[in-house]
Write the structure tokens for this entry.
Amino acid sequence: MDFVGVDVYDETWHEGTYPWPANADAEEIARRQRKAWDQWIVASPRGLGFWTKFAKEHGKPLAIPEWGLVWSSHNHGGKDDVHFIEQMHAFITDPRNNVAFHCYFDINESDHGHQLSPGVMGAGSTGKKEGTEFPQSAARFRALFGAGK
């Protein structure tokens, strides 16, 4: 079986999203995270809306082989963005989107990361237990995607 596949990250240079000002309060950060989802991740010229339509037009299921939150040295990621986790869950589980499979990219690199699973050590690990930059999102991810879901 063939799939139409797309990677989805909470990362953008779309105006008025990321990075947010140093003095931004929680409400401003949440507004920017919602804007990134609505205007970039879904509605941009090659956003999820485009790929869902493309897959349907070609009679193929959609695959999301990589998706994740982003913290980065360039600050164009949404960081601990619970809204992104919730929206990805809603998108993935909506039968209208025909998502065949998905995989959260649960890894950190030296200049950016995505990891939700504290204590996981992967290739190239320094031997130190790794934490997560996204504690609220990690809890929400487990609640939505955890065992028995």
Summary: Residues 72 and 112 are 4 Å apart (CA to CA). The two ends are 25 Å apart (CA to CA).
